Amino acid sequence: MIESLVKANLNLYAVLRNLPLLVKSDPVAAKTVAQWRIGIQFVVWRGPAATLVFEDGTCVFERGRHGNTEVVFGFITPAHFNRMMDGKGTPVPLKGFRHLGFMRNEFPKIADRLAFFLKPTDAKLADPHYLAVNTRLTLATAVFAARELALFDPTCRQVAGRIRDGAVLLKILPDGPSAHLIFEGGEVTAGLGDVQRPMARIDFRDQATANAFLNGRLDPFTAIASGEVAIRGQTPMIDNLSLIFDRIPGYLG
Fold first, then answer.
1. CA trace torsion 81, 87, 93, 96 (10° rounding)
2. Which of 5, 69, 160, 210 is 20–30 Å from 226 (CA)?
3. Distance between CA atoms of 9 and 156, rounded to whole angstroms?
4. Where are the domains of the chain?
């Protein structure tokens, strides 16, 4: 039960929350949602909830329940939501029946575009645009998934308890993208962009290096020894965070 709940948290708060970033990063995705004006809420019984708001060509992700949305989809269990994310389940429409045509015919276009960029192959990664978007999405997924695991996965919660308070920055040189995690008093916050005065940081030499590293195609020890990946600051924080990152494929792989 706990594994299903943790996976639902990752699917909603680390995977589906990538849609705003996708819309900002990919012209095809931006064109797809350009005329959309709709709020879609996903509610898992005794589990996570979040809302996607599409308006004027933008997409905003908000955690938690929100009353004023055109569409509300319910899921009776975390496993039910996970099946939908795997393309094997159907949500229960709780509100917005007149929008069912949109959800059946239009929303899958952006969902499929997200899935396209989150399932890399060597052929896809040969395209510079695909490489850039996949790297951004994978980096974002990693930090937001790590946050959920650090708080809710029993093993990762123990590991996170050994991480001192402070921020860890992950950055692709020279100018990003970047993402970070902040550990403070038992709480964990994940975010995109730089963070002031990180206690530890992981710098990737370039986009290709970051992509290979984040997708498990580059051996960490080799990358660090060669200088492709640089570790700075409080290395025990990074060592423990790496153990949390290692758990992500077990849920999303």
1. 120
2. 160
3. 14
4. 2-118, 122-252
Burial (CB < 10 A; 0-12, 13-18, 19+), residue 104, is: exposed
Q: Place 67 in a pLDDT band, splitting at 50, 70 and 90.
A: confident
Could you please state the CATH topology (level 3) that the domain comprising 122-252 is classified under. Nonspecific Lipid-transfer Protein; Chain A (3.30.1050)
Do 122-252 and 2-118 fall under one CATH topology?
yes
Task: Tell me the C-alpha distance between 179 and 136, whole Å.
Answer: 9
Which amino acid, 204? F
Q: Which tokens is 235 given?
A: 């290395």
Amino acid in position 118: L
What is the distance between the terminal CA atoms of the chain, rounded to a whole angstrom? 19
pLDDT one-digit tens code per residue, 170-228: 999 999 999 999 999 989 999 999 999 999 999 999 999 999 999 989 888 899 999 99
Give pairs for 239-244: CB < 8 Å, separation 24+: 240/159, 240/160, 240/162, 240/163, 241/146, 241/163, 241/168, 241/181, 243/156, 243/159, 244/146, 244/149, 244/150, 244/156, 244/159, 244/160
The contacts of residue 25 (CB under 8 Å, 6+ apart) are 132, 133, 136, 137
Q: Which CATH architecture has domain 2-118?
A: 2-Layer Sandwich (3.30)
